[in-house]
Amino acid sequence: MTNENTSTRPLHPVSLTKRMLLGAAIALALITAFLISAGEGDPAWPRFWMVRPLVIVPLAGATGGAFFYFMDHLRHHGGWRAVLGIVLGVIVYIFGLWLGTVLGLDGTYWD
User: Quick count: other Cβ atoms within 10 Å of Cβ 66?
Assistant: First the structure.
């Protein structure tokens, strides 16, 4: 008797680094679009006030991408667990992106 693994799909089809880079790229694109559309800041703000949100928000996006990567074990099973893994990953990513945006814009637009 041999034990065969009938599943040929890899548990992690994409590496952690790629998921984190994708999450950070999406977050960077969103915060960049927001900062460009927001116009000039208040003259009382520090000179390079945009650096903070441009660093913190992509870090939050990378963290959300890492969480999505770790939800692969749910998506691997298929069925309702796969749907749960996708929905939970997206909700946590959006929540983390929102918190990163609030933290990045605190003291400027979020004052």
Answer: 18
Could you say which DSSP state residue 12 is in? -
Q: In 71-105, where does DSSP find H-type helix?
A: 72-77, 80-105
Render each residue's pLDDT in the chain as its tens digit; 111 residues: 555 555 566 666 778 899 999 999 999 999 999 999 987 777 788 888 889 999 999 999 999 999 999 888 887 777 888 888 889 999 999 999 999 999 998 888 766
Query: What is d(CA 55, CA 31) in angstroms, rounded to the nearest whole number?
Result: 10
Cα(17)–Cα(28) distance, rounded to whole angstroms?
16
54 phi/psi in degrees, rounded to 5: -75, -10
